[in-house]
Every structure is written in C-alpha cells, then in structure tokens.
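Revision sheet: structure tokens.
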Amino acid sequence: MDYRKKIDAETWDFIHKTGEYYPPETVTYTVDQQRKIYDKMCGAFFRGYPEGVTASDQLIGTIPTRHYTSNDAPATVMYFHGGGFVVGGLESHDDVCAEICDCTGLDVVSVDYRMAPEHLHPAMHDDCLAATRHILTTTNTPILLAGDSAGGNLAATVAAVLRNNPQLIGQVLVYGSFGGDIEAGTFIEHANAPLLTRDEILFYEGIRYKNGERPRDDPTATPLDDTSFEGLPPSVIISAECDPITDGSRLYHEAIQAAGGRSVWINEQGLVHGYLRARTTVKRAADSFKRITEALSVLSRKEWHY
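Predicted:
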C-alpha cells in the first residue's frame, strides 16, 4: 500500500513525531520497556485539562478509576483506553477524557483495567464490566460506553453483556478491535500501515490469551464472535482508513444493523490508528474528535441523527 497520497502532510508530521517516542521496533522490547515508552509518548502529546474540568481518582473495588466532571451532567461516559490490552492507563488518555467531559458536559469515568501478560483474558473485560455495573447501580443517570482500539473492544464486550439495559443508551467506538479474518481484507491490505501493523496485532493477541491462543466463540474476547447482536445500544462506530483493523468496524456495524439495531459506521479517510493524539495538530483528527464528542452528546439526549 502506497500511503503517500492517502495521508496528508499534517498526519505524516504526527506519524513522525510518534515515531520519535515510540519507534516501530518497540514491539520487540520487554513489556515493561514498552509501557515506559508508551507513557512517555503519550506525555509528549498531553495538552492538559480544559478550564473548569476536574478529576478525582477512585477505587471501584480493586479497580482504579478516574472521574471527570464539569457540571451537573445528564449522563456518564464509561471510557476504556487503548493500548493493545498491554500498555496505557489513566495517564495515557487523561487529556482525551478531560476534553470529552468539557466538549459534551458529560461525566467521564476512565477505567484502569488489568492488562496482559500479568493478567490474561478475561481479566480486562471483567474489570470494565464490574466498573460499569457499579456506576449503573450507584447513579440514576444514563450510561454511554466509549473506548479506542482495545478499549473499543472492551466497550463492545460490555455492551453485549448488558444488552437491553434501559440505562445503557449508546456506545461510541473509535478504531476498535472487533475481530475478523486476520488473513483477509484490511488486515492484509493495511498490514504495514503506519502506527499499527498486522505483526503488532498478532504479538499483542499472542500475549493476551492463555497459551497464546484466542478462544473460539467467545464474545467477551472478540465481539464479532457473538451469536446475536440484538439488544445492543445505538452505536457510532468510527475507524481509520489506513489501519489493519478497519474491516472489524464495518463488520460490527453491519451485524448490528442486520439484527435491527441502530448503527452508523464512519471510516475516517487518510487517518491512522491512534489519531486521537493528533486531535490538536491534525485537522482531519480534530474533525473526527468533534464527530466523536457530538455523537456522545446526541446519544446522551437519546436522539439519533444518522
């Protein structure tokens, strides 16, 4: 794939800056080294909190969470961070969550779920589900699920367990990992895409599961392995064009629609995996972030504009 015409100059600048902190060979380092490099890279893109947004760290059982608020919010966003189920945490997506809170007027709860390889599947799913259930039972406000990359996967797996819950009013999933044929489609077409390659996906999958093998027919691991997509909340599914996992977003969207649910799929042209960090420097990423926050606002009002 020749990305020279697909990707604009601003996005290439973002890709190069990311590479200065997180070089392609990082996947060959130890997990501890990868986490330190990822955290340093995220810190380089950190933009602080918007005025008026405050955050506090709270334990939900043994699960660390960070709660963002700016006013009397009409709904709460449960946010699950990306990072291949291996890297990332409360700090990596701190300003993203703060800006979502500011742009939408919604409370945001970021979940620091357990990660591989210390904790194998389904530990990360279990933590996200437990945190969401706690918020559902301790607040009277509606809940929205959101996440990027691995976090998109986790949001979808939580939505599947909580399907038909009237308090769960929507999900917004950004370049999520939903499954699909690793030997076909965008997994092959974009196997060597900037910022995420097929080989990196295989590495992270290999250390997430017992014996390195993804369980079959387990929708808590792979949303597309579910046998039913009925009862899921209205879903806004956003992917990056230049990304190996893009087909999963399309297929998940199509599965929800085929089951009679509300879903829209937006494939952001010329963007790459991880572009949320580029939202302040790349117009395409800024436009997409606006679509993300607008989607959360629309769904929080129980409206559907798609």
